[in-house]
Amino acid sequence: MKTLFSTIVMVVLTVGIHAQSRLENAKKTASENKELILLNFSGSDWCIPCIKLHKNIIETDEFKQLESDHVIVYINADFPRNKKNQLSAELKKENASLADEYNKKGLFPYTLLLNEEGKVLKSWEGLPSENALAFSKEIREIREKSK
């Protein structure tokens, strides 16, 4: 009986600890490398502005260079609706936890630039009006100011 109880407690604790692992890992990496965290809430298979954001900004070389240059750590909190695109239960729970903390209004797309402690420095509601180059440049400028 003690073994069963111990096992249940360990599982609950492990799930609870893992629920914020991407954000916690991002905070650690950002702190070590003097980076910012870009957290994007999207509906990858139903939200047209989200799909455009990913295609026109996040999947571009200019944006990817932000990660390569250690300017940002990128986290995508995705909320797909189609059955074939469903995430693991663990990832769904983590994304819901991120939304509870950072996206209480349930906006899509919603993009946040955070410091290494998770404090919001800038937010974009909906599809940013900038192109990938201007979006990336703005992030670089915010990083320089926050040093």
TL;DR?
The chain has 147 residues and is α+β, with helices and mostly antiparallel strands.
What does the model show?
The longest helix has 17 residues, at 2-18. 53% of the residues lie in helices and 17% in strands. It has helices at residues 2-18, 21-33, 48-58, 61-68, 89-102, 132-146; strands spanning 36-42, 72-78, 110-114, 120-125. It has one domain (21-146): Glutaredoxin (3-Layer(aba) Sandwich). By secondary structure, it is α+β, with helices and mostly antiparallel strands.
What labels describe this entry?
about 150 residues, alpha+beta, disordered N terminus, 4-stranded mixed beta sheet, Glutaredoxin, Thioredoxin-like, 4 strands, globular, single chain, 6 helices, Thioredoxin_domain
Strand content: 15-25%
Sketch the major β-sheet: 4 strands, mixed
Multimerization status: single chain
CATH class: Alpha Beta
- In CATH, the architecture is 3-Layer(aba) Sandwich
Number of strands: 4
CATH fold name: Glutaredoxin
Distance between the termini: 54 Å
User: What's the rounded overall pLDDT mean?
Assistant: 90
- Estimated radius of gyration: 17 Å
- Which sequence of strands runs across the widest sheet? 2-1-3-4
Number of domains: 1
Shape: globular
Give the name of the CATH superfamily.
Glutaredoxin
* DSSP helix fraction: 40-55%
Q: What's the SSE pattern?
A: HHEHHEHEEH
Instruction: Provide the low-confidence segments as ranges.
Output: 2-19
How many H/I helical runs? 6
Report the structural category: alpha+beta
Domain Thioredoxin: 1-144
Protein name: Thioredoxin-like
